[in-house]
TrEMBL record:
Alphabetized SUPFAM superfamilies for the sequence: Radical SAM enzymes
GO terms of biological process kind: porphyrin-containing compound biosynthetic process
Name this polypeptide is given: Radical SAM protein
GO cellular component, one term: cytoplasm
Domain Radical SAM core: 7-95
Gene3D superfamilies linked to this entry: 3.30.750.200
PANTHER family: COPROPORPHYRINIGEN III OXIDASE, COPROPORPHYRINOGEN III OXIDASE
Example GO molecular function: 4 iron, 4 sulfur cluster binding
């Protein structure tokens, strides 16, 4: 047995049909104290077009069953921008979550991957078009306003707590410089400035264990300033940027990045109060792009021989625009 802390968060990523008594009792007996369920939508038509066969009534019943044990935090994942989804149906989903005896929710925008079955169904007209970027932003705005009015606690850009039991530790700490120790075939993590990736091939993984060897596929040393980049990501995951903290911890010249954030503030992605830049709903929607752009700009700035103001004003928006276009 591993010497785990008594407040360790142990999450089971589950589907609706997993929430039966036999499995639930086994999970709890083995120490699971958090269950994250990929509901995506409660609407039966939307679920079935995604290949999720359980209707709304079964989803609700199974979530109630899991919560009735009072042995674990119960979290639901929702996606916005789905085929057949409307703002009205999405609000119905939020109301269902608010009525259920669960502890929080995660919210993600739809990503349509090339060569996926969903992409094929959309291209052939088997499914109606998904939401545009502007429509997806409206879904996020609707959710943020609903959850704020319902007094949910915002844990990160994608995570909300309904009760004090939900901490979402992995989701928040994995974006920082905390150590993440990988276990299992295909797992990845990092310890200090070393990234570690375990063997993906299950046979090779098991053979290594049988021989008494650690089944590591490869390791990489993190690049220079990796800790800074993680701190930037940690801040943007919390829907804001505090350059003062970054400058005090790493390099006072980082305060020059105000040039970038001021440009983005002028374009409606942030509001500024003192040294704190807070993301607007538009900024929250583009959070991943903002994070990638800010890290890329920071890398270039740290390697530059000139003042950031001499070359960055134009690059700040150009870099971000390219991210959006891609």
């Amino acid at each position: 047995c591993l010497p785990l802390a008594n407040d360790c968060e142990i999450t089971m990523e589950a589907r609706v049909h997993d929430l039966v008594d036999e499995k639930l009792q086994t999970w709890f007996a083995r120490g699971v104290n958090r269950i994250s369920v990929g509901v995506q939508s409660f609407d039966t038509q939307i679920r079935q077009c995604l290949g999720r066969v359980d209707p709304k009534e079964v989803v609700i019943e199974n979530l109630q069953r899991a919560a009735s044990y009072n042995q674990a935090v119960i979290i639901v994942d929702l996606i916005y921008g789905l085929p057949y989804q409307t703002v009205e149906k999405f609000v119905d989903d939020l109301k269902i979550i608010d009525d259920l005896p669960i502890d929080g929710m995660d919210l993600y925008q739809l990503n349509v991957f090339e060569k996926s079955l969903l992409k094929k169904s959309l291209d052939t007209g088997k499914l109606p078009p998904v939401a545009t970027s502007a429509e997806q932003a409206e879904y996020l705005k609707t959710a943020a306003e609903f959850l704020e009015e319902a007094n949910y606690k915002r844990l990160s850009v994608c995570h909300w707590a309904k009760s004090n039991r939900e901490r979402s530790l992995y989701n928040t700490l994995a974006k920082t410089d905390a150590d993440v120790i990988p276990f299992g075939s295909g797992a990845g993590g990092f310890v200090g400035d070393i990234s570690v990736y375990m063997q993906r091939d299950l046979k090779k993984y098991m053979d290594s264990i049988d021989k008494g060897k650690v089944p590591i596929m490869f390791m990489l040393r993190a690049p220079e300033f990796a800790s800074l980049y993680k701190d930037i990501q940690d801040q943007t995951e919390s829907c804001g940027v505090n350059l003062t903290k970054l400058a005090k911890k790493y390099n006072k010249e980082l305060m020059q990045l105000e040039t970038v954030l001021d440009i983005w503030t002028e374009h409606g992605l942030f509001t500024k109060k003192g040294h704190m830049y807070r993301m607007t709903i538009a900024g929250q929607y583009w959070q991943k792009n903002i994070t990638q752009s800010l890290i890329e700009i920071t890398k270039k700035f740290l390697n530059a021989k000139t003042s950031i103001n001499e070359w960055l004003t134009e690059k700040a928006m150009n870099t971000f625009k390219k991210k959006i276009e891609n």
